[in-house]
Amino acid sequence: MDYFSRGSNAKVEEMKKDVFSTLSSCTSHDPELRKKKALKILEIGVGTGVNFAYYPDGTRLVVVDPNPHFRSYYNENRKKFPNIHSEEIIVTTGEEMDMVQSNSVDVVVSTLVFCSVENQKKILEQILRVLAPGGKFYFYEHISEFDTERHGTRRRIQEFLTATGIWPFIFDNCMLNRDMLADIQQAGFSKVQAQRFYSPIDHFVFQLVKPSLKGVAEK
């Protein structure tokens, strides 16, 4: 996973900058952080720490990830961003992050995580719990093919590689046949802005994760 996350793709980087472009306009619920124009962000499934570059200066970053083997890669990446006050990884799943206090964070971030979680509805319940009133959930996920008239073959390959367990085995339990938009819309957020689209991915193998979902949901 570290090897694949190191690959740079200028088009994908620009797309992710767009996903997080409104972070700087968010306001913290914490008076002290508000004075400093800083935010408290919780990232679920932080992995190796590939999203540091998109967070505003002064961000207080809380991170959870169920895989303890990411810790050394995450620690190496966090050294490159002294402007971000990042905490040690809490080794747990998003569904079981009860140690994160309710109404305690301004923003929750999830990128390429919902493909591998055990229970999408439970993790969304947790996200709503930890967000402060008015807090926002930023998400970017790959999903199952949504235009089956034009790309039916891709959908069939996604289903086959997921059902046989081949893709989940190689990519840390990643499933190719999920679409979490309906669950997000029904989770209880006051507002959901979301868009299905195709990520600008050129690599032949990763055409399977080109169908994507991005958006912001507000508590």
TrEMBL record:
SUPFAM superfamilies: S-adenosyl-L-methionine-dependent methyltransferases. InterPro entries: Methyltransf_11, SAM-dependent_MTases_sf, Thiol_S-MT. Residues 42-139 form the Methyltransferase type domain. Pfam families: Methyltransf_11. GO terms for molecular function: S-adenosylmethionine-dependent methyltransferase activity. CDD domains: AdoMet_MTases (cd02440). PANTHER family: METHYLTRANSFERASE LIKE 7A, METHYLTRANSFERASE LIKE 7B. This is Methyltransferase type 11 domain-containing protein. The lineage of its organism: Eukaryota, Metazoa, Ecdysozoa, Arthropoda, Crustacea.
